[in-house]
Amino acid sequence: MLHQRGLRVTVPRLLVLGVIATHPHVDAGYVARTLRHRGLSRQTVYGNLDALVAAKLLRRVEPADSAALYELRIEGDDHHHLMCRHCRRLFDTAIVPGVDLTPTGSQAPGFRVDGVDVFFWGVCGDCAAERTRVDDPTRSDPASPARGLIGSDGGTRPS
User: Taking the model in full, what pTM does it have?
Assistant: First the structure.
């Protein structure tokens, strides 16, 4: 896989890919903290993330007002994302096949689109349920529990 993309196979690259494969939608800081015990510096992690994105093995997802997040890039998988405004979880979603997302009425003549990244913003079911529970006047404990950021795989993602 790495050789086919013109990238040398190294232990740090394999370790970075392993973290992203098991924890999609995490930021570079999470990857660096996870691999610190393996002797990888933050600079090494960032450099390898950049190299893996350039080789199109990872995809960098950049939601507004958030750190860039990383996921494996699988050929032919052109999915998009839902982001919860409350817990900041990112969920994968697909757009109905055949929907034309080509921009029209552009003020940039000759602009060639080479990719589309759609973000849908809203409130996930867990946060909506929690909000309903917190707003319930019959509830005895009005304090809401602290919530960590959670990746689409269900694992917590530190901020």
Answer: 0.67
